[in-house]
Amino acid sequence: MAITSPPARFRFTGTQEVIHGEGALAALPEAVERLGGTRVFIITGKSMATKTGHVAAAEALLGKTWAGTMAGVRQHAPQGDVAAAAEEAKAASADLLVSLGGGSPIDSAKGVAELLQVDGRPLPQIAISTTLSAGEFTPIAAATDEASGVKEVRVDHRLTPATVILDPKLTLETPEQLWASTGVKALDHAVEVLLAVRPHPLADLLASEAIRRLCQSLPVTLAQPDNLDARADCQLVAWFSIAGLPSVGIRLSHLIGHQVGARWDIPHGVTSCITLPHCVRHLAAETEEQQKRLADAFDLPHSQLSAQERGEANAEAIATFIAKLPVPTSLQAAGAREADLPAVADAVAAETRSGGSEPQSPGAIMSLLRAMW
What we know:
Layout: E1 17-20, H1 28-34, E2 40-44, H2 46-51, H3 54-62, E3 66-70, H4 79-91, E4 96-101, H5 103-115, E5 125-129, E6 140-145, E7 150-155, E8 163-166, H6 176-194, H7 201-223, H8 228-242, H9 245-248, H10 252-264, H11 268-282, H12 288-297, H13 307-323, H14 331-334, H15 341-353, H16 362-372
Parallel strand pairs: 1-8, 2-3, 2-4, 4-5, 5-8
Antiparallel strand pairs: 6-7
Helix pairs in contact: 4-5, 6-7, 6-8, 6-11, 7-8, 7-12, 10-11, 10-15, 11-13, 11-16, 12-13, 15-16
C-alpha cells in the first residue's frame, strides 16, 4: 500500500497499560493504586460470579477499596442492565470501575463510566478479560435497546479502559464454545483490519501476525485445555487483532454481527463464525489489494488468481478453519428467525450509512443474510 499519499492517521486508544501472563490478576491492587481508585466497583455476569471463584478473588485482592459488585449483566449489554449497574455504582460512591468477564460486562462498564462522569470525564476503568472478544482495547461501547432489539454503538476514546489485565488462568473455566467463538471474533477483527476502508501499515502488520498466530494457538487450546502458554498467546493475539481497528474502521462482518446478535440474542463470537466467510467473499472485488495481504497471512498461493478467485480462496480458508471448531456456522443453526431477516437487513444498512464502512443497500444485506441462513 502507498504510505506517503494521501496523509494517513493512526490513533492509539486510551489503554495505558496491559498486564499479561500467568498470575497477572495479582497486579490488580497496584493498578487500582496507580489510577487513584479508592472506591472500586466490579461489573460482571451472573455465571462469572456464581460458577467461578474469579469475582471473589478480585474482591479479596481489592480489600478495603472494594465498594461493591453488580453481577447481573446479561448478554449484549441490555440498556436496562447498564442503567441498573450505574445506579448501584453511584450508590456505592464508586470512583473506579472493574469489568470482569467477556464483552458484555466490558461494554456495560463503558456505559456506566459514561453515565457517571466526574468533571465531564467518564470514570476510569480496569478491564479483566476472560474471552478473546477484545472489547477491552477499544473506545467502542455498545448496548442493546431491549424494546427494538437494535444494538446502539457509540465511539468515545475516553471510554477505553486505562488498564487491561490478561491472565490465562482466568480463562480455564471459560466454556469451550465461548472461547472458540471469541477466538473467531479475534480473527474477524484481524480480517476486517486487513480489508479496511482506511488501511494502515501498522494495523496491517499486527493483524497479519494475529491471523498467523491464532491459526496455530487456538486449536492447541481446544486440544489441550490446560495449556496456559497457548491460552496466553491467544490473549495476545486478540490484542494484536484489534489494535488498529479504531483507526481503520470496521467492515460488514462486524456491522451484521451487531444487529444479528442483538436481534436473536446470539453471542458476538458466534455471529463472526457465521458472517465472516460470506463478507470476505462479498467484498472481494472492492478489496483486491487488501485481499492479497489476507491471502499472505493465511499463506495461500494467490499470484495467478483473479480478484474474485482470491476472495473466494480467502473465504474458503476462513470457513475451513471455523468448521473445525465447536461452533455454529449458519443463522439457522444459531437460532435465528427467518421472518426477522428484513428488519435485520434494514438495521445493518442503516448502520453502514452512519459511517465507518461503505454504505450498503438493504437488498445487498438481505442477499448476504440469505447466504448465511
